[in-house]
Amino acid sequence: MDKQNPSAPPCAQPRIPRGITHINVRHTTRFTVIGNHLAQHPRLSGLAIGLAVHIQSLPTGARADIKTLAARFPEGETRIAAALRELEAHGYLARTRERLPSGRVVTHTVSYNRPRDAEAEAQERRPTTPQSRPAPTPTLTPAPAPTPAPATGTPAQPDAEVPPSPTPEPHPKNPPPTPEQHTHHSAAHDTATTLLASLHRDDPRLLLAERDVRRLAPAVTAWLDRGAAPEAVRRTLTASLPEDPLRHPAGLLAHRLAELLPPPLPAAPATRAAVRPLPLQNCDGCDRAFRAWAPGRCRDCRSDLSEAA
Fold first, then answer.
1. Cα distance between residue 114 and residue 91, in whole Å
2. C-alpha atoms less than 13 angstroms from C-alpha of 83 in its C-beta half-sphere
């Protein structure tokens, strides 16, 4: 090594890989298949993608509401609610509110591992603007033929009888009043109104609006007419209330009043007229008391007189 050769090639440098290197191990248990359409979604946030993966890994029947997810992850309820709305908008999640037979309202969540036709749904929900509205196709409408003027003194006869216009149906939000809404005020009606207006003293969540009190008063009056005491009605309406916040207390009370209505009182049995017993008399023979219409002798004294004769 007395002389260096500057023309010798340099030593080869090791290649440094760029990007991601995957080390994949085949899963045989406890795994969930996630599509790249979700994992690489161009418009979903990272939190929404992570929540979608977590929800798809849950078993059927597990809770996936906002409070449960906020207790599981460090993000707050506001961010989790926004992420769930993202998943709903892109077809990975559907949430519907359902009322149980007990009157409690719960949220039913459906998770989709493949997105629904979100573009079509978005197109339906997208408001129609004058710019996006398709131009109407011009149509040529023939001009109506002129009607000849009737002769003087002769009334014009119509060519065909025009059917009367149908009566517009009432809007579903304003149904026609039912007979129960016109219940005459009575002592039972006033008791029912007072009972409903004071339910918030038992539970502050049962504070009803005035229109709800008027709507539910006929149902409570029906209970009172069937022999139920006001305290019994109060216990039925306030017992075993759900622990969750009552968003529709009037609906819960209406459900209980309709489902738990007691049967009508049976007809009272016909009472017999009271039979007045015979008055007491003192026997003229033995001075013993006996019942008869008029004073005289008792049965034993009359038999003794008949035997002596």
1. 8
2. 23
Kind plus residue range of the DSSP H or E element containing 302 = helix 299-308
The conformational region for residue 153 under phi > 0 = left, psi -120 to 50 = alpha, else beta, is left
The bridge status of strand 289-291 relative to strand 105-111 is unpaired
- List pLDDT tens digits, range 90-112: 999 998 888 888 888 888 889 99
**CB neighbours of residue 225 within 10 Å:** 13
Paired residues of 111 in beta bridges: 93
Q: What is the DSSP string of 129-185?
A: -TTTSPPPPP--PPPPPPPPPPPTTSPPPPSSPPPPPPPPPPPTTSPPPPGGGGPPP
* CA distances from residue 126 to 67, 95, 118 in whole angstroms, order as listed: 30, 20, 12
In the chain the domains, ranked by start, together with CATH numbers, are 36-120 (1.10.10), 180-239+248-259 (no CATH)
Q: Residue 196: what pLDDT?
A: 93
Q: Are 217 and 192 in contact (CB under 8 A)?
A: yes
**Angle (deg, nearest 10), helices 187-197 and 230-238:** 30
Return the closest-CA partner of residue 184 out of 209, 213, 218. 218
pTM of the model: 0.36
